[in-house]
Specification:
The chain is of the alpha/beta class. The protein is about 30% helix and about 30% strand. It is built from five helices and nine strands; from the N terminus they run E-E-H-E-H-E-H-E-H-E-H-E-E-E. The strands form two sheets. It has a seven-stranded mixed beta sheet, covered by helices on one side. Helix 3 links the parallel strand 4 and strand 5. Helix 2 runs parallel beside helix 3.
């Protein structure tokens, strides 16, 4: 069982997605990830997009630590249901509707942010998490990252979490790598818009 590490909802337990289709972020990795983001001043009042949300643990942690709005996207029905339950729990603790869950494909949601007339995004994000499932190929991740670049605020941060056996993301031209760190079976990569 996962939990919120710190912030206004610190210590609250989160439900896990049954089965092995999702790969939950360990508390150790979450603590390291969010410590880094806080040291960069990324979290306070951030607009967060949590793609491939799973149980929603990353978005819930961001909300607990001061994000002003979190949109979690999850396609799998069981995971989306758990994500919704966890979002509801944290929203009740925070006494605000900060976390919203959208059930659907990441690419469809990203494409839906654009006005068909102008081509401009209807909203932008300060922090984007991508924790894709193992079957997602490098090419699919690269295409998704390209779409993500179109919804980023100027000073945004993008975080990709994958298995340490996976290759590094192929960053689109609009993103510059910031850092990366391996934690056992998990590897985190960070990037920002150019």
């Amino acid at each position: 069982m996962s939990r919120i590490i710190a912030g206004a909802a610190g210590g609250i337990s989160l439900k896990s997605v049954p089965g092995n289709a999702t790969r939950p972020t360990t508390d150790r990795v979450k603590e390291a990830l969010f410590s880094r983001l806080e040291s960069w001043g990324v979290l306070q009042s951030a607009r967060v997009l949590d793609l491939f949300g799973g149980s929603g643990a990353l978005g819930c942690e961001a909300a607990s630590r001061g994000a002003r709005n979190v949109l979690q996207v999850e396609k799998a029905p069981k995971a989306a249901a758990v994500c919704q339950q966890n979002a509801g729990t944290i929203n009740r603790v925070l006494k605000a509707e900060i976390i919203h869950v959208h059930r659907g494909s990441v690419d469809t949601v990203l494409e839906g942010f654009f006005d068909n007339q102008t081509g401009n995004p209807s909203r932008t994000f300060d922090l984007v998490f991508l924790d894709p499932p193992y079957p997602l190929t490098d090419d699919e991740l690269a295409k998704t990252l390209q779409k993500v670049t179109r919804v980023l605020a100027d000073d945004a941060t993008v975080v990709v979490e994958r298995s340490s056996r996976s290759s590094a993301p192929r960053w689109p031209e609009a993103l510059a790598p910031l850092a990366d760190k391996k934690y056992g079976e998990t590897h985190l990569w960070f990037a920002e818009p150019i």
